[in-house]
Amino acid sequence: MICVNPLRRIIYCSRAVAGTGRDDHQAILNVSRRNNGMDGISGILWIEQGRYLQLIEGPVDSVGDAFERIKRDTRHTDIHILDDRMTDSPEFGDWAMAGLPGDHPKDAAERLRFLLRNTGPDIRHFFPVD
Q1: pTM of the predicted protein model
Q2: Is residue 30 part of a domain?
Q3: Which residues, at least 6 apart from 109, have a Cβ–Cβ distance to it below 8 Å?
């Protein structure tokens, strides 16, 4: 008998605190990649016009702990959970965190479409991939 460990997936949005700039965005990505890699978490972070949109997925306890850290981060506010569910398989595999700052909107949008190409509509409808 094969035992499948359930995974947790949270999608949330938040608003960057005034003065949060590109350097902070890169710092967020760097810390996320380091921590998530150690905790078995994968996901994607979209940054655009002072707004964060993130999906994190992985072991139930790891995702819960990571989201508690995220909620305490003072670089953003107005955190809203858009989706919180259990799943059997990750959408983003072994990535520690795919980051998509919207500095060059056309390039970032193309990359976002590429990264979301194999995800289901229940994921894609949260991200701006017209």
Answers
A1: 0.81
A2: yes
A3: 128, 129, 130
